[in-house]
Amino acid sequence: MELRHLRYFIAVAEEGAFSRAARRLHVVQPTLSMQIRDLETELGGPLFDRGARRTSLTPAGQALLIEARQVLAQAERARTATRLALRGETGSVRIGVAGAAVFGGLLTGRIRAFCAARPLARIELREAGPQRQRAAILAGELDVGYSALPAPPDEPRLTSISASSASFLVALPAGHALAECETLTAEQIAGEELIEYSLGESRDDPALNLMRNTGLNLWPMSARYRADSTLSVLALVAAGAGIAVVPAGVARAAVPDVAYRPLAEPDLAVEFHLLHRAEEPDPVVAAFLNTDAESC
Fold this sequence. Notes:
It is a single chain. The chain is of the alpha/beta class and 296 residues long. It has three domains: 3-86, Arc Repressor Mutant, subunit A (Orthogonal Bundle), CATH 1.10.10; 92-164 and 272-295, 3-Layer(aba) Sandwich (D-Maltodextrin-Binding Protein, domain 2), CATH 3.40.190; 168-268, D-Maltodextrin-Binding Protein, domain 2 (3-Layer(aba) Sandwich), CATH 3.40.190. Helix content is 39%, strand content 20%. The chain has a five-stranded mixed β-sheet with strand order 4-3-5-12-6. Strands 10-7-11 form a three-stranded antiparallel β-sheet. A two-stranded antiparallel ribbon has the order 1-2. Strand 8, helix 9 and strand 9 form a beta-alpha-beta unit. Helix 1 (3-15) crosses helix 2 and helix 1 (3-15) packs across helix 4 (59-86). The longest helix is centred in the first third of the chain and has 28 residues, at 59-86. The radius of gyration is 32 Å and the shape is rod-shaped.
């Protein structure tokens, strides 16, 4: 039994005549009759009462009609689902991201454009630091990562593209003396208690690393306070534990008792990268990566 047999059977059942069914199916009547006979032979009995004026279903034919319609409907759903998947219109994109990228608005534009173009696709966000993102993408647990670190040059299975750049703000307790200043310099905040990002990895604070790499080595190599997410960093700031250097967009997180001031170091900006597999087999992930950057 093939889907063709079921389509022919349903046409005869609905038209009530082999001649009308043949015209509907664009086949010659002898071919249609032969296909129905083959189906009846396979099933072991007649499906139609072939009258002089009208062809009607036998009880066995009535039972088959219900099932045949369901089978063809399911086949059509399978065909549609497969075509959508092949075009990258369905499926899911699992994205690793740290809080700084979320609050900085670095990924919302791309996600918005992608979801508008592919409303049936799913997006899953999972918080993970740069090293965890790399490992998870290679293990097939993530598809994409937003990271302050590009793909490592010694790992050919990963690649990355520039996603955006971010300047920095200083997050201070609302009552801190430096909150009276409109802008702050690195020298002004030198010696203050600094809260660092620590996403389960060593020395991964992008702002602090960038300052040290540009010669602004103003803090000891081991901070007293470290946190593994942007909200946790800001919570420590709000509690008065210290200050933090954060990407500028983080100011969108209206955390009580935290004040933000621009950091007047114009050459300081961290580049964020879109990390992904060098060869991407999943059409929906490839579609996400190819989302028009101008629409982001």
